[in-house]
Structure formats: structure tokens, C-alpha cells
């Protein structure tokens, strides 16, 4: 069973075109990348400003909110 | 209105979503299931925001390290406090206490002091390492530490003569600036007991040596008694040599 964890993130941080949201696995001793970790059920809830219908990118698909 | 961007995965880390087209987003929450069955080691799930140029805007690690092979379901959202975790490396210190008795300092010779084998405090993690296995501590190494606090107290035979003690750190890691600290005097009784403190940068890889030197120019050999305390702070994610 997956260990449930919570962590803070910056509020009200506007990310424009070509900005990225990354989930990574880092080594706790030196901050280097730990290989062999995969991510699934990766959800990013966003307030979108314009062009929201074009938010699909690579394996990520856009899921419009209610009333969209 | 909140929208959702979703990838079923699995995606190899770093799993990166890039804001496409002419859009702009304000993340409200991020959720991910990390599968560590193939992880090459223990890991810390971390969320990173990057600018268009690839520069880090925010890097948010969880306060918990996940054991290699284990999974983690992580939720990032604003206005929550990270759970206090005893395993947070920045809050765990390696502690070493050592001493010597009647250590001989030859007149006119800068002498690297040796100490009886010190004791790491219970629970010290990671332990401070010695460069030899003879039960004598001389120049010693500082593996796995970034910032190291060193405190040295030396008691000299009472008399008026020039003497000093110094803490001489190794070069430290790339970008580190380590400088010796020396306490010097010749008065008695003021200089009969000398104290020096230094903050040094270690390196988790280069194992820089640290030397504790004593010097006196009284014309005769002097026997000193010393006490040494070392506190090592492991490197924290994102911490630099400042």
C-alpha cells in the first residue's frame, strides 16, 4: 500500500507557457535524481487563464471542470 | 473554475508537465502516486516548478523519505504545514565528544593534536568517522556532512609564553570556503585556557580532513589537556555552501 504523504506548495503561482510542473524522486543525502521511480495517477488541479482547452500535453490530458 | 490535467501513467521520473500553447495556469493542488518498486535507492518525492528558461521557481520535497521499493501517494497543496519528521536530515546532527590528557606539544613545532577515541552521541546519524582504527583521533574526516561546528578547548600549563590552538578545515566541497581559525596569546592566566570555534563545510563525497593544531614557544615541551566537540549537520536538499 502506498504511503500517504502531504506537502505544501506555493500558492498563487502563475505558470505561463513552457513553464513546467515536475514530480521527481530525489536522493535524501545529496539531492541527485533516483532512477527507477515511476509516476501514475498524476493530477494537477489548476485555475487556468485562457486557452484551457489546449492544456493537453504529451501523456497529460485536459479534463474540463463542470460547466466547461 | 478549476480544471484538471491528468496523466494515467506510469511516467518515468522526472514526470514533467509543460504548459503548452499560449496558456497559463495557477496550480491549486498536485497529486501523484510514485511507484518505487524499481527505485535505485531511498527517495524523497519532490515537486518542482520551473520557469520558461528551466530555472527552479519552487522545489518542494516531502518531509518523509520513502524506502526503496515502497510506493508513496503524495498530495501537494498550499497552506499546509509539512509534517514534522524525525527523519528530516536537517534536524539530525552527528555529535562527537573527544578529549586528550597530557598531550605533548614540543616547543616551536606546530603539532596536530591527537585525541582519545571520541564518543558519538547516542543516535548520532550519520556517525562522524575517524581516519584510523587505533583508538586515536587525529586528522579526521567529515563524511555525509555539509556544515560542521567544531569547538576546541585546551588547557596549558600556567606560565607566560606564546601559544595558540587552531582549527584547520579541509578544502570542503566544490564552492566551499573553509578558513582556519586560531586563538593565540601569551599572558597568564588569561591564555592558560584557550578556546576556538569554527564552522566548516564538509562534503558528502570528498571527505575533507580536519586538523586541530597546537603550538607553543616556551622553550620547553608542554603537556596540555583538551576537549573537543564536533557537531555535524547533514546536507539538506537544495542547501548550498553558504
Rg on CA atoms of chain B, Å:
25 Å
Give me the count of strands of chain A: 4
How far apart lie the N and C ends of chain B?
A: 43 Å
Globally, the shape of chain A reads: extended
Q: Tally of extended strands of chain B?
A: 19
Cα-to-Cα separation, first versus last residue of chain A: 35 Å
Oligomer: heterodimer
SSE pattern of chain A, N- to C-terminal: EEEE
Based on the model shown, name its key terms.
heterodimer, A: 68 residues, mainly beta, 4 strands, 0% helix, B: 242 residues, Jelly Rolls, elongated
Notes on the structure:
The complex is a heterodimer of chains A (68) and B (242). Chain A is mostly beta strands and 68 residues long. In chain A, 0% of the residues lie in helices and 38% in strands. Chain B contains no helices and 19 strands. Chain B has 242 residues and is an all-beta fold. In chain B, 0% of the residues lie in helices and 48% in strands. In chain B, a hairpin with a 5-residue loop joins strand 5 (44-50) and strand 6. At the A-B interface, strand 1, strand 2, strand 3 and strand 4 of A face strand 1, strand 2, strand 3, strand 4 and strand 5 of B. Strand 3 (38-48) of chain A pairs antiparallel with strand 4 (25-35) of chain B, so a sheet runs across the interface.
Give a summary of the structure in a few sentences.
The complex is a heterodimer of chains A (68) and B (242). With 68 residues, chain A is mainly β.
Write the layout of secondary structure elements.
The complex is a heterodimer of chains A (68) and B (242).
Chain A: E1 3-7, E2 20-26, E3 38-48, E4 61-63
Chain B: E1 2-7, E2 11-12, E3 15-18, E4 25-35, E5 44-50, E6 56-61, E7 72-76, E8 94-105, E9 111-112, E10 115-116, E11 119-120, E12 136-137, E13 140-141, E14 145-155, E15 163-169, E16 181-185, E17 193-201, E18 209-216, E19 222-234
Antiparallel strand pairs in B: 4-7, 5-6, 8-11, 8-19, 9-18, 10-12, 13-18, 14-17, 14-19, 15-16, 15-18
Amino acid at each position: 500500500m502506498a504511503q500517504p504523504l502531504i506537502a505544501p506548495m506555493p500558492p498563487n503561482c502563475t505558470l505561463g507557457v513552457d513553464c513546467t510542473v515536475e514530480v521527481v524522486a530525489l536522493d535524501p543525502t545529496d539531492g541527485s535524481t533516483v532512477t527507477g521511480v515511476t509516476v501514475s495517477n498524476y493530477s494537477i488541479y489548476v485555475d487556468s487563464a485562457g486557452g484551457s482547452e489546449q492544456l493537453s500535453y504529451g501523456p497529460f490530458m485536459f479534463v474540463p471542470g463542470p460547466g466547461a | 473554475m478549476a480544471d484538471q490535467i491528468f496523466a494515467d501513467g506510469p511516467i518515468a521520473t522526472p514526470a514533467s508537465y509543460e504548459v503548452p500553447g499560449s496558456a497559463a495556469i495557477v496550480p491549486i493542488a498536485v497529486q501523484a502516486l510514485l511507484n518505487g518498486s524499481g527505485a535505485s535507492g531511498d527517495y524523497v518525492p519532490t515537486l518542482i516548478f520551473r520557469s520558461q528558461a528551466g530555472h527552479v521557481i519552487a522545489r518542494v520535497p516531502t518531509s518523509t523519505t520513502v524506502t526503496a521499493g515502497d510506493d508513496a501517494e503524495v498530495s501537494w497543496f498550499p497552506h499546509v504545514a509539512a509534517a514534522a519528521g524525525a527523519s528530516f536530515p536537517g534536524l539530525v546532527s552527528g555529535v562527537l565528544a573527544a578529549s586528550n590528557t597530557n598531550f605533548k606539544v614540543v616547543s616551536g613545532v606546530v603539532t596536530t593534536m591527537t585525541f582519545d577515541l571520541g564518543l558519538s552521541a547516542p543516535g548520532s546519524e550519520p556517525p562522524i568517522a575517524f581516519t584510523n582504527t587505533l583508538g586515536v583521533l587525529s586528522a579526521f574526516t567529515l563524511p555525509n556532512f555539509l556544515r560542521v561546528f567544531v569547538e576546541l578547548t585546551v588547557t596549558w600549563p600556567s606560565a607566560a609564553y606564546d601559544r595558540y590552538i587552531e582549527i584547520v578545515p579541509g578544502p570542503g566541497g566544490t564552492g566551499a570556503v573553509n578558513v582556519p581559525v586560531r586563538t593565540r596569546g601569551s599572558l597568564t592566566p588569561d591564555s592558560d585556557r584557550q578556546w576556538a570555534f569554527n564552522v566548516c563545510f564538509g562534503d558528502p563525497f570528498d571527505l575533507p580532513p580536519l586538523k586541530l593544531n597546537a603550538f607553543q614557544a616556551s622553550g620547553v615541551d608542554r603537556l596540555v589537556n583538551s576537549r573537543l566537540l564536533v557537531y555535524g549537520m547533514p546536507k539538506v536538499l537544495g542547501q548550498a555552501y553558504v
